[in-house]
Every structure is written in structure tokens, then in C-alpha cells.
Amino acid sequence: MIRQLFLLSSIASVDAFISPPSLHAPNIVASSWQSQPLRHPSSPLHADASSDGSDGAADETEADEANASPPAEEESDILNSPAFLKRKEEVLKSDIAALEKEIEEANAVSAAAKEEWGAKFDMLNKESQGMQERMSKQGAAGTETATVEVAQKVLSVLDNYDRAFQAVDAVTNEEVEIVDAYKKTYDMILDSFTELNVTKVETVGTEFDYEMHQAMMQMPSDEYEEGIVCQEFAMGWKCGEKLIRPAMVVVAA
């Protein structure tokens, strides 16, 4: 029993030694009191001092702004100063002189190249122009040849129309309508010839032309002089100046 009491008292003393409850409280209060800043009571003297401080800060700000504005004016004055403008003019003149020098060098190179290659270029230009002219003539000649071939085949149709118109004597209204329809077709062919530059060879009243006329016979004529075509047997046609078919004519003797 005595041993148990002794153990309990020992444990209580050790516990009290390890964590005493009231040792740290005064220190905590003191530290919290020390950490709080001192507050001065509001008084007229304190208010005047604070207002004087704010007014002084405002005056300093205005002074800073007043001191900050002059550099812009000074900068504009520098840009418009005679020394700056003179220097700028010198730089521009220098740039212009450099460009003029480059232009002169380029002209010199061009002149040298023209002197060396000018004759060859002229010869190439002449050859090119001659080739274009030849190609143009060949194209026109090819078109004219094709037109002549087509016209030669269509002329046989026109000859048949001419023979039919000479042989047919329309009497009834129905026959007249048929003849008119054929004449319209005949006129359409002639219009197509005109668009293709296919024209008739002039005959009666013109001088006999060995290239355009084919003389079928000669006969005396009181109306036309000797060597003048006085009658036409068959029409002649040409495409431009190229003969498609000579005209068959009678020549006055």
C-alpha cells in the first residue's frame, strides 16, 4: 500500500514538472501587448499635422508634373532646330547622290551591253518580224485556198440553179412559190460567197482580160468597140485577186 502511494506521488510530481500551467501565460500577454502599435488620441494638433503632410505631397506631385512637361517641348525644339534640319538635308543629299551614282553605273552597263549585243538583237528582231509576216501570209493563203476549193464545189450547184431558172416558166401560183423558194436559196448562197470574199468577175462592157475571161467567140458589135466583152455565157468567180473560175464571154470584133 505504501509502495503504491509513493508511485502515485512520483508520477504527479513528474507531470507537474513537465507541463506547468501558469508559466507561459504572462509572457504571452506581454508579447501581445508589445506587438500592438501605439495609438495616439485624435486631437486638433494631430489633424493639422496630417493635413499638412497631405498638402505637402500634393505640392510635390504638381511640381513633378510641371518639371515633367518641358522635355516634350525641348524635344520638338530639337527637331525644328536649324542644326538638326541642316543635318537632315545633308543626309538626303547624300542619299540622292548615291542613287544618281547607281543610275549612272546601270546606264553604263546597259550601254556596254547594247554595244556588244545590239547588232545581234536587231538581227533577231528582224528575223522575228519576217517570220511573223511569213506565218501571217501562209495563214491567209491557206484560208484563201480552202475558200477557193469550197467555192469551186458550190459553183456547180449555182450553175444548175441558173439552168433551171432559164428552163422553167412558172405559170401557176404553186409553181411561182416553188421558184421563189429556190431563188431564196440561191440568194443565200450568193450572200455566203460575199461573206467569204468570193465575188463575180466583171464581164460585159469591160476590156477583155486573158487572166479573168475565157473567150468563146468573137462577133461584130455596134454597141461595143473591138476587144470589149459584149456578151456573157457563164459567170466567172474570184476570191480576192485569185481566180476561181474564168468567165465565158463573147468579145466584140
Summary tags:
three-stranded mixed beta sheet; single chain; mainly alpha; 68% helix; three-stranded antiparallel beta sheet; disordered N terminus; 253 residues
Structure, described:
The structure is a single chain. The protein is mainly α and 253 residues long. Helices cover 68% and strands 11% of the residues. The protein contains six helices and six strands, in the order ααααααββββββ. The strands form two sheets. The chain has a three-stranded antiparallel sheet. A hairpin with a 2-residue loop joins β4 and β5. α5 packs antiparallel against α6. It is elongated. The N terminus is likely disordered.
Shape: elongated
From the N-terminal CA to the C-terminal CA, the straight-line distance is: 189 Å
Query: What is the element string, with H for helices and E for strands?
Result: HHHHHHEEEEEE
Which structural class do the helices and strands define?
mainly alpha
Number of helices: 6
Helical content (DSSP H or I, runs of 4+): 55-70%
* Cα-based radius of gyration, to the nearest Å: 63 Å
* Largest β-sheet summary: 3 strands, antiparallel
Instruction: Point out poorly predicted stretches.
Output: 1-7, 12-58
**Mean pLDDT across residues:** 76
Let me know the number of strands: 6
Strand content: 5-15%
- Give the strand order of the largest sheet, numbering strands 1, 2, ... along the chain: 1-4-5
Brief rundown of the structure:
With 253 residues, the chain is mainly alpha-helical. The protein is built from 6 helices and 6 strands, in the order H-H-H-H-H-H-E-E-E-E-E-E.
